[in-house]
Amino acid sequence: MIEQFWTHCVEALKKEIPAQQIKLWIDPLSIVEFDEDQARLVMAAPNRFKLDWVVNNYGGRFNQMASDYFGCDMAIEWQVASKTTPASPMRQTPQPGKTSSESVSPKLESIRQEEIAASVYERSRLNKDLCFSNFVSGRANQLARAAAEQVANNPGVSYNPLFLYGGVGLGKTHLIHSIGNKLLERNPQASIRYIHAEQYVSDVVKAYQKKAFEEFKRSYYSLDLLLIDDIQFFAGKSRTQEEFFYAFEQLIAAKKQIIITSDTYPKEIQGIEDRLISRFNSGLTVAIEPPELEMRVAILLKKAEQQQVKFGEDVAFFVAKHMRSNVRELEGALRRIMAFASFHNKTVTMDLVREALRDMISVHHGQVSVESIQKTVADYYKIKVADMFSKRRQANIVLPRQVAMYLAKELTDKSYVEIGELFGGRDHTTVLHAVNKISEMRNQSAELNHALHVLDQTLKG
Ligand SMILES: Nc1ncnc2c1ncn2[C@@H]1O[C@H](COP(=O)(O)OP(=O)(O)OP(=O)(O)O)[C@@H](O)[C@H]1O
Question: Which residues make up each annotated binding site?
Answer without folding.
Answer: 169, 171-173
